[in-house]
Amino acid sequence: MEIDPKTGLPVDAAVWEDLAKSEQKIRVSTEKRRYGKVATIVSGFDKSIDVKATARALKEELACGGTVKDGKIELQGNHGKKVKPILVRLGFQEDSVED
Q1: Per residue in 12-24, pLDDT tens?
Q2: For the domain bounded by 11-92, which CATH number is listed?
Q3: Alpha carbon of 90 to those of 19, 49, 84: distances in Å?
């Protein structure tokens, strides 16, 4: 049995994260902040998903700042229409991501 050095789990267990991604109900919304700034909120992740890695990938792809708070990803700027295709490329189901 081969062990993944990053997670410490068997390599076959990586399949479970792909299965967990297919059963998510993710919501993408925008929120107006102080001084008229807009933030994009991505929520609805389960505990089995690495939210920090997902946030990192979104921030790199969208070239924006952001953070993870309370299991939600907060991105700086209005990226509502751009987030869904990126999440689909990351392995989430297209019909599970609500705009």
Answers
A1: 655 656 666 667 7
A2: 3.30.780.10
A3: 13, 12, 10
Domains of the chain, by residue range, sit at 11-92
In this prediction, residue 73 carries a pLDDT of 96
* Cα separations in angstroms, 46 against 35, 51, 64, 79: 32, 9, 24, 22
pTM: 0.77
Tokens of 78: 């209005």
Residue 71 has, within 13 A of its CA and on its CB side, a CA count of: 9
In whole angstroms, what is the distance from residue 12 CA to residue 82 CA? 32
CB of 8 closer than 8 Å to CB of 80 = no
